[in-house]
Amino acid sequence: MQALQETIRPSADLRNHYSEISKLCREKKEAVIITVNGRGDTVTIGYEEYKRMKSRIELLEFLAEAEEDVTSGRVAPLCDTFEELRNILKGSE
User: Fold this and answer.
1) Residue 51 half-sphere exposure toward CB, CA atoms < 13 A
2) pLDDT grade for 93, boundaries at 50, 70 and 90
3) Mean pLDDT across the stretch 9-15?
4) Residue 92 phi, psi (nearest 5)
5) Which H or E run includes 20?
6) Is 6 buried (19+), middle (13-18) or exposed (0-12) by CB count in 10 A?
7) Is the pTM of this model over 0.70?
């Protein structure tokens, strides 16, 4: 996985150079860190990158929950799970 490149820009650039910032986010897939008084305030990323990051976070949360289930012994044999799913699907027909 490639690291997301970052560019730092002052908040005034949002107003004065929005098109340029938008292009960096969309086309070059860069994260633009917006500063206020020299300190990081906001991060802007392209919509496609946002969706990708959100999907990754959701997957990681799901995997962490599954790992916790295994650690806590909340597991069942696979054949039982499939049988339960078959019964659920038969009931919904």
Assistant:
1) 3
2) low
3) 96
4) -90, 0
5) helix 18-27
6) exposed
7) yes
Residue appearing with tokens 């070059």: 28
Structure tokens at 92: 């919904």
DSSP conformational letter for 17: S
Strand ranges across the sheet with 31-36 = 6-10, 31-36, 39-44
Place of tokens 């004065």: 16
Dump pLDDT digits (tens) for 35-56.
Answer: 999 999 999 999 999 999 999 9
Rounded mean pLDDT of 87-91?
92
Mean pLDDT value across residues 77-91? 92
CA dist., res. 52 & res. 86, Å (int): 32
One-letter amino acid of 51: K
Amino acid at site 72:
S
